[in-house]
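Troubleshooting log. The previous run stalled partway through. Resubmitting the same three chains, unchanged.
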Amino acid sequence: MAITGAILVLYLIAHMYGNLKIFSGQEAFDGYAHSLRELGYPLLPYEGFLWIARIVLLASILIHIYAVVVLWRRNHRARTARYQVTKRVQRSYSSYTMRYGGILIALFVVFHILHLTTNNIAPGGRSDSPYERMVNGFQPEFWFVTLFYLASVVAVGLHLRHGIWSAVTTLGGNKAGRQGKLNALATAIALIVAVGFAIPPLAVTFGLVS
Amino acid sequence: MNITLRVWRQKGPDDKGRMATYKLTDVSSDMSFLEMLDVLNEKLTLEGEDPVAFDHDCREGICGACGVVIDGEAHGPEMTTTCQLHMRSFNDGDTITVEPWRAKAFPVIKDLVVDRGAFDRIIQAGGYISAPTGTAPDAHATPVPKADADRAFDAATCISCGACVAACPNASAMLFTAAKVTHLGMLPQGQPERAARVVKMVNQHDEEDFGNCTNIGECAAVCPKGIPLDTISQLNRDLLGSLAKGVG
Amino acid sequence: MSDTDYFIVGDPVRDEKAPEGPINERWDKRRFSARLVNPANRRKLSVIMVGTGLAGAAAAATLGEAGYNVTTFCYQDSPRRAHSIAAQGGINAAKNYRNDGDSIYRLFYDTVKGGDFRSRESNVYRLAQTSVEIIDQCVAQGVPFAREYGGLLDNRSFGGVQVSRTFYARGQTGQQLLIGAYQALERQIAAGTVEMNTRHEMLELIVVDGKARGIIARDMVTGEIETHFADAVVLATGGYGNVFFLSTNAMGSNVTATWRAHRKGALFANPCYTQIHPTCIPVSGDYQSKLTLMSESLRNDGRIWVPKKQGDTRDPRQIPEDERDYYLERIYPSFGNLVPRDIASRAAKNVCDEGRGVGPSGLGVYLDFADAIQRMGIKAVEAKYGNLFDMYQRITGENPYEVPMRIYPAVHYTMGGLWVDYDLQSNIPGLFVTGEANFSDHGANRLGASALMQGLADGYFVLPNTINDYLADGPFEKIDESHPEAVAAKEQVTSRIDKLLSLQGSRTVDSFHKELGQIMWEYCGMERTEEGLTKAIGLIRELRAEFWRDVKVLGTNDELNQALEKAGRVADFLELGELMCIDALHRRESCGGHFRAESQTEDGEALRHDDEFAYVAAWEFGGDDSKPVLHKENLEYEYVEMKQRSYK
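Second attempt completed without errors. Output:
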């Protein structure tokens, strides 16, 4: 789970970098999207890299979810009788919401692909330009799309906040005296990713990008 | 002070169990929590009601026998064992809920008493250094850097009370297991069996139906001996190393 | 009424096993003369081990490693909870790592002298010899002793001795040593050589043809009364300090196993030798269930005092220097606050008896760190004693950095126990006794940091080398549950349980236990008199009769029934208490932990009578309605000259 999580986090950072290109204008953004298809070409076939990435990502997601299910079933079995009163001592909101936040993110990813990749869902009209799909999709009249996007981004941030810390610990990287730094690092990455993803659609909604 | 107690009563392993409510008057704030339960039991006995069973022994915070969940917190509101918790941590008029450790691996025997035999079996699986009596070299034969000895000691102070399991949302015993792996793994004497130890202990941990660790940290937050959470990371590191080497 | 109205004098008893010759060769000689058991035959031989503290777990693990079939029993839910775990200070060993003049001989000498010349020289010398191996063994097991920056083991001086021979693991030495032994034991359980029965309490000994052959134990979860057989039985069940109700012992510590063996013929030696530890947290109310020890090391820097005036209830910080009595420094100028435990305890009792005690109950003296904080700074005091101060604050709610601590003596350790020979075998063949449960090594007073040493010496090194000599004659004739002795023993147990459950009287078990404790503390505590002891015997007899008439135990035998467990233990304490008083009454001298008011020097110090009392008092059970029989074992000192102790 830690390893697949780490792959997905790295992907998210790259994805966020790409999204921020929207501020460089339509040409740059579409060019960037196109360049991904040609990455490694001609060594790899056209869209070869993209498909490799997609397969790796899909496998990561599936393994990640499979691991969650196994873990969840085990942990559920481990306590059959519940407490009458429970109190959180250390548990953070982010660790508390890992499971439901994860489900939200999974649903969002499906919508997100249908919306901006395959464009099967196209609020504001279809387009061959990724830039235009973005701009169309997050127009003020589609505030609910933006809101859903933002809620999902918050969920991603929370998920990363605990996930990064947890993954590093699981992989044995949490050494004595390092706990504070590690937590700060996880919070920083989570914040950067969440804010980084939230800016482009907000910019569209508020008309900074059109 | 006067308090109301809501206590888990369960006649035996197969009984369904229920919460019972008792009122206690004139509780001294200098009483320990267990002494308050003693007073309750004296009262119940004289009234002809079965006293509440709870585990306890040394009553000085070191044997690890006692432990109940008080108002949702393992060992109650202070970071100490239940026997070292005093009534001055509560207020007059409080209602206090007392429940046993809850985990499938810790079945309830009666009332607040649970069976923690799973911990012994985890130790049996590898929580030791094989040093039969009489085989030891001189104690000074192998110096141990002070920092390593201190860290081994910190991990070795675990009293096996089970609060980590009780508090863990997943009922995992990873902190307990990790404390032993860290204690023995920090010492030169523990190296020959280090790779195999962690695999065997974690396997046993899983076999006992403890949940798995999701690094939430409730365990270390309630641990009366302050076993640090990073011991779990050390366990993971050792485990990954062993698996990479093909041990287990 | 003379004290012989309480007992009969029988034949003297002798330790036949200790070899003659130079003291440093005796253990070697004994190991050589003891018969061996072929490794292939060991698996045909079985040993029952009752109690799994330091002595029990160490012995069970070692015998398991040797290949014997070992079955162990403990009343706790895990062997790792035995009360050995609570020992704080450390463990002595004559390693001389400090190069400060220590040696096996010096440790031997200190221990014999500290025991006030009431222990056996041969045993104590062996203890000192073995101490060296214990440290090696424990380090090999991974016990994290304190170390210095060079990586070597640290030592400290402890209990007023002049050499640094105490090994320690912060304030948790007992815990770390016990976990070491526990892990060795669990390893043998996994290997199948040891079968562990937790939550089991031994309630009777089975003696067949004069040999100990098994026990009756109660499964404390199901209530099942089980019969277990073996070729030898070892009791490692600890001390009986809980006869005082309030003590530093664990709540479950009890005398039942040894007392039941005593009733079956095992001699009980020196029951009145009780160690009262001077630095415990005072009692705060009648709900108090146990007393907590504060490490003796506090006396290194804290100053003990009481107000000069009686009934002075002022805040201690408001009492000016010239109205304070630093009584230990005044009476014992050369040792001051560091006098041995028995002396410090009695001095505290004396000032409280004068009405100068402090705290709500008047039973307490101040242990003041104000001078130490001024001299060393608060940081240094915190570094040295921080955890103890925290513990004190947690229990009392007072901040010892600001207000002087209050301390009072409490029962801590019992030097008496079942009589054993050099092989640790009782007078019942096949019944061995180790650790605090036996009487062997501490005489009338135990020095600091030597209880852990004795438990592990017995467990790892002595018993495993001596029990062979007995087992070499085995395996003994097979017996089963239908054997008349086994049937009778089981019947005794069940009828006692039935009786306890059927009484349905009006008083709880604890109320009897508390009353017994008050009698014992008042009359058989720090200071004993003929009058008081005689009175106590009468009170105990009345209380025992009332117990068997009026105790209230609810529930059934077929469940976890903690009141029933307690009732059985208190019933045995009610018998033991009487024997302790009789022993204390007959010993008309003061020695070690036993102070008879009639036997003191002009300035109030303990006065021994070596001409009359240089013997071990080994008591034989005379029957429920008959007097106990006193068997004396003469003590001879070839190596250490008998002297009156002086700490002035």
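Takeaways: DSSP finds eight helices and seven strands in chain B. The interface with chain A takes residues 6, 8, 19, 69, 71-73, 97, 99, 102-105, 108, 151, 167, 169-172, 209-218, 220-222, 228-230, 232-234, 236-240 of chain B (CB under 8 Å).
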